[in-house]
Design goal:
Elements: E1 5-6, H1 14-17, E2 20-24, H2 28-39, E3 43-48, H3 52-59, E4 64-66, H4 67-73, E5 76-79, H5 83-94, E6 103-106, H6 110-113, E7 124-130, H7 134-142, E8 149-155, H8 161-171, E9 179-181, H9 184-199, H10 201-216, H11 221-250, H12 253-266, H13 269-283, H14 286-296, H15 300-310, H16 313-323
Parallel strand pairs: 2-3, 2-5, 3-4, 5-6, 6-7, 8-9
Antiparallel strand pairs: 1-9, 7-8
Helix pairs in contact: 2-7, 4-5, 9-10, 9-13, 10-11
Bound molecules: NADPH dihydro-nicotinamide-adenine-dinucleotide phosphate (NDP), ligand LWWEY6Y5 and magnesium ion (2 copies).
Length: 330
């Protein structure tokens, strides 16, 4: 099936022009989407609890309300709080206050796909999922571009859900880059797989294993940091600009030969077999169940692992080296 893509000319901001959009949460995605929508001329309010994000949203000039009040005032509610907190906040503060025919939006399908949130029949349920960390959603918009996004409609109660989604995507800058049609299921399963197996879990494990191999062999940690972590960005930038071929064109023939002979010895058939298991655990809901239970039991594993990972020698040497890299935005 051919992929369905949408660009600037396919989206009409008018679908949101006389509506109030409540962004719930003002973290990585929340601050970026809210500021982009406002700069696109739309009417945005923020729903939060009192605290760090509340103060930040106020400082940025937004009207900020408790979540229930924001939901009451809104025609469109975009839920951008942590996935593991969304179901409780939705049930207690949003669902009882949502207008009939309002649109409930997400940037990740976890809670709808795994049945943690079940909206009323008269609510539009849709997703605009930027394929980028929040801070780049904002930075690229300000630079006059945008990041690609996915659109999915789970429930089209008003008949307007798709139009609202495209207008929202235009408001955050994503129709400048392209918006791909998908489903909640496809976005949820591929997003979880990508971040676990490749982008976050896979890359972190690869970087650490390379770093540890070099320092255990007696090389200086500073050199190991540059070779296994720092240069990764430079290599990934080339892949981003022109795929694997552009990266291989730019590196030396020595590196390219090493890539071909050594890469498959590191990521082996065994690794791919494990990737398939990881995907199956995502598809069957095993990962989702474990994550939900972990959160219900106060995150013992999560907290201990985060602390241990932060103490890894690569983080210590990296912090010292980055102090000298004035070009890195803090
Ligand atoms: N991070 C990213 O770049 C991406 C995230 N997504 C999705 O976007 C959504 C948001 O993730 P992300 O931006 O990372 O979230 P963050 O962790 O960066 O921010 C969460 C925000 O929610 C607020 N919050 C938490 N609990 C409550 C509550 N009970 N009531 C009101 N506000 C609350 C926090 O405020 P406080 O300061 O008070 O804690 C904070 O502003 C998730 O669905 C995620 O999967 C999708 C694509 C990429
Ligand atoms: C890659 C991690 C991500 O899926 C993202 C930035 O897209 C996330 O959940 O933060
Ligand atoms: Mg993602
Ligand atoms: Mg994700």
């Amino acid at each position: 099936m051919a992929v369905k893509m949408y660009y600037e000319q396919d989206a009409n901001l008018g679908a949101l022009q006389n509506k109030t959009i409540a962004i719930i949460g003002y973290g990585s995605q929340g601050h970026a989407q809210a500021q982009n929508l406002r700069d696109s001329g739309l009417n945005v309010i923020i729903g939060l609890r009192k605290g760090k994000s509340w103060d930040a949203a106020k400082d940025d000039g937004f009207e900020v309300y408790e979540v229930d009040e924001a939901a009451r005032r809104a025609d469109v509610v975009q839920l951008l709080i942590n996935d593991e907190l969304q179901a409780k906040v939705f049930k207690e503060q949003i669902q009882p206050n949502l207008k009939k025919g309002a649109a409930l939006m997400f940037s990740h399908g976890f809670n709808i796909h795994f049945g943690q949130i079940v909206p009323d029949e008269h609510t539009d349920v849709l997703m605009i999922a930027p394929k980028s960390p929040g801070h780049l959603v904002r930075r690229t918009y300000v630079e006059g571009f945008g990041v690609p996004a996915l659109i999915a409609v789970e429930q089209n109660a008003t008949g307007q859900a798709h139009e609202i989604g495209l207008a929202y995507a235009k408001g955050i800058g994503s129709t400048r880059a392209g918006v791909i049609e998908t489903t909640f299921r496809e976005e949820t399963e591929t997003d979880l797989f990508g971040e676990q197996a490749v982008l976050c879990g896979g890359v972190s494990a690869l970087v650490k294993a390379g770093f540890e191999t070099l320092i255990e062999a007696g090389y200086q940690p500073e050199i190991a940091y540059f070779e296994c972590l720092h240069e990764l960005k430079l290599i990934v930038d080339l892949m981003y600009e022109g795929g694997l071929a552009r990266m291989r064109y730019s590196i030396s023939d020595t590196a390219e030969y090493g890539d071909y002979v050594t890469g498959p010895r590191i990521v082996t058939e065994e690794t791919k077999k494990e990737m398939k298991k990881v995907l199956e655990e995502i598809q069957t809901g095993v990962f989702a169940r474990n994550f939900i239970v972990e959160n219900q039991s106060n995150r013992a594993f999560f907290t201990a692992t985060r602390r241990r990972e932060n103490e890894h020698p690569i983080e210590k040497v990296g912090a010292q080296l980055r102090e000298m890299m004035q070009w890195i935005q803090k």
